[in-house]
Amino acid sequence: MPEVPSHFSEFDAAAAGQVLGAEPRTTRDIAHGDGEALNVGDTVLEVYRDAGFARVTTPDARIELYRVPRFSVSGERVVFEQGDDDERTRLQIRADGKVAFHPVLRATESPSTRELALSGHQDSPANGGTSEPATGSADAIPEQQEAVQQQLRGRLGRDPWFSTRDDRPAAGFPLAVNPEDGGKAIWHNVVTFDGTAEELQQAHSKGVIRKGRLVDVTGQPVLHEEPKPNGGIKKTTEFHASTVARVTSRTVPIRRSN
Fold it and tell me: Whole-model pTM?
């Protein structure tokens, strides 16, 4: 289920302990005052609610968050978020003691269309339905490199999937984009991460974004590489999206005058 963020001052060490399989204990820090700690294997989580401070210590690293505004607890992990919507970071601790600390990608809404990711409005007309899968036309780049953000508009070929990749929340779906000339649909393998993936899961749980929905996707094509079981490297093209928004109305195309 999607995680519901709560204010950091409401942190419940007992609930976090149940998720992480750890027994909370009281602790005190000379700089941050009284707090609670949980030992998750070799990882130690410390939370000082009054100071708005959280610390995670592993055998190899220490991560400290100041002025933490919110946290969430799910059946798999405890997550702390820091920063505003434009510059958010997320610290997550899992029951197996693994820790991940990464930025949350978020893009602004497209000015060219009215779009809504969490509403129940009906879709407006668009090009025809999906067809058999074909190779995407966008040029892919290695995952480590940056590229100019692109926008795709198309329909979901199936309901989104939800998982994790490199200890990060991940989600995705096949997207069918119909060419302007009315030719065969071009399919893209859309993948999202972090907050975008979690927001997609919330939208899907409400029935807003699902198979057949018309959406705008902003992101960039990348070349994803993963090892094969029998050796070698499997290369696939993915469209890594920083935002996915359901289209609720069409816009009049801009025509250039001769």
Answer: 0.47
